[in-house]
Design brief:
- 56% of the residues lie in helices and 0% in strands.
- The chain is mainly α.
- The relative contact order is 0.15.
- The N terminus is likely disordered.
Amino acid sequence: MTHQDSKPLTGTPALAQDLTTPEAIRRAAGLTAEEMAALLGMGDYGYSAWERGARTPGGPALKLLALIATDPLKMIAALRKA
């Protein structure tokens, strides 16, 4: 790890906003569950499993959720263009 890697991130982290679950992130972004599933490129059933706690998002999905939590408007716009 370089010195640059150890610099603190700017902005408000998702956890500081108490956005610790997919449902909390989705609600804060003003999206329905169906809209969030489509935005993440997944089916409604798979996404609802996250909200029910039956499954846990991992890997790239966690990164996308964290990005949406930090700047919902910008990230939603970018994901809709993709």
